[in-house]
Structure formats: C-alpha cells, structure tokens
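Design job #97: recover the sequence.
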C-alpha cells in the first residue's frame, strides 16, 4: 500500500458510515472476489460501506491455501487488520469455511486467525458433520461460529432449517446462524418467519435476491427473496444483525463497484 493510497483510505474512514435507519449495512468481501485485499478496501470505500464480513479468499494465498491453513502468517493477518482500520472498515466477522477435509489443527488455527484479526465472530460454509469437531474450539476460545446456508440440498450441507437445527442441537450457545436469504429462497424456504423466530441466534445476514426452485441469484428487485420485507423487519424490530450485501449475480467483466453501488442504493430505498 502506497502512502498516497493509505491517505486516501484514511480520508474515506473519516467521512463514511453505513448504518442506515439503525440497520448495519455492509458487505461480504466475496462480493469483491475479483479484487485483491487493498482493492477490496478501496471498493468498500467507493461504495460507502463500512461493515465487513471478511472472506478467507482475501487473505489465503492462491494455490497455497492448505499450507496457509496449517501455518498461518499471523503477522500478515495483523497487518491486514491495520489496513482495514485505516480504511475505516469494521471487520465484523471473518468467514472461514471449515469443512470435513480440515484437520483439527487447521480448525484450531482458524480460531487463532480470527484472534489475529482481532475478531471474535466466525461465519462458515461448513459441513453438518464438521460441527462436532468445531464446537470444542468455540468453547475453548469463546468464539461463536455461524453456519452459512446454501441451496445445494445435498446430504451433509446446510440448505434447510432442519439442517441448521440438527447441527445446533445441544450446541446453541456457540453455534449460531449466518442466514443467507438468497440461498434460503432458492431452496424454497421463507426467510422472513425464520428471521423472526431465530433473530437472537443470527450473527450475520447475507443480503441478495434470488428465484425459488434453485433459479439462481438475481439483481435486487428482480427476485423473490423478500429483501425489502427483511430489511423493514430489521429496521422496525431493531435487530442488531448486520445485513451484508453479497453480490453474486454478475458475469465476468461486470464492474463490481458499479454493481455494489446499485445494490447499496436499493438497500437504502428499502430502508427509507
């Protein structure tokens, strides 16, 4: 990061806040998956978002993920956190998808990675069968892990409320929920009553629009994911849950920052 770029981010940090009508609005950094870490921070500033769920693809070296998970570079991680702080970005949670293939050592390193980021929340596209191995580390490090739902409908994956309940049973104190309303809708589930019933256990919410019957992700307003109703409920009930925009519908070559600006503008309209 050049001094000039650092100064630009520091200026942005002093001028931006993305809490809208009491609702924390941010981004899952997967939205900026076509950008390196510094570019992602600049993109967040350009859009005007301050809350971040940091995807592991923004710190794990490509092609060396396995090695990094076993031997994380904690100095690098602490340096990345300093960059986020300088940019005025609140790293609310880190997204580390601990799956069946992960060793217990790698799972423990994930918790240590969160601490190196000075974060005490982990979201995870995990497997149902991995949760019993993750849970003892939640207890040891006092860090909750929120499971992220998709719409694959495959065994050992989180797709339905029943999948989530199965993994959390007897572990509700540390295993929480990362509700993705786009995937929930695509799996023919209704996010609104689920949010009402489980809001106290939802760590973060992924905000995207989609079509039912695995119809795919859509631009905001073109799907059936009840985006406006979800946001209005969060506003009215004052749920302390960040709504993280996760931009997935774009094709290669699409301007990510422009699309994220459009997404954020839609969210503001919904919360007006």
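Job complete. Output follows.
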């Amino acid at each position: 990061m050049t001094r000039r770029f650092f100064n630009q981010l520091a200026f942005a940090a002093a001028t931006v806040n993305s809490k809208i009508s009491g609702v924390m609005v941010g981004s899952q950094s997967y939205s900026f998956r076509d950008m390196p870490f510094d570019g992602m921070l600049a993109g967040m500033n350009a859009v005007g978002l301050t809350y971040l769920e940091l995807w592991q693809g923004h710190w794990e070296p490509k092609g060396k993920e396995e090695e990094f998970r076993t031997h994380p570079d904690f100095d690098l991680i602490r340096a990345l956190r300093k960059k986020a702080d300088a940019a005025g970005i609140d790293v609310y949670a880190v997204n580390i998808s601990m799956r069946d293939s992960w060793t217990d050592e790698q799972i423990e390193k994930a918790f240590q990675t969160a601490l190196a980021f000075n974060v005490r929340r982990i979201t995870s596209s995990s497997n149902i069968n991995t949760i019993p191995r993750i849970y003892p580390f939640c207890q040891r490090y006092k860090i909750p892990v929120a499971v992220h739902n998709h719409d694959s409908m495959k065994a050992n994956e989180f797709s339905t409320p029943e999948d989530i309940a199965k993994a959390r049973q007897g572990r509700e104190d540390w295993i929480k929920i990362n509700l993705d309303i786009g995937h929930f809708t695509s799996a023919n589930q209704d996010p609104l009553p689920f949010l009402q019933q489980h809001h106290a256990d939802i760590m973060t919410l992924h905000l995207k629009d989609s079509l039912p019957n695995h119809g795919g992700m859509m631009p905001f307003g073109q799907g059936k994911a009840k985006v406006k109703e979800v946001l209005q409920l969060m506003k009215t009930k004052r749920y302390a849950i960040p709504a993280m925009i996760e931009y997935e519908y774009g094709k290669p070559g699409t301007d990510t920052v422009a699309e994220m600006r459009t997404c954020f503008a839609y969210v503001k309209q919904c919360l007006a």
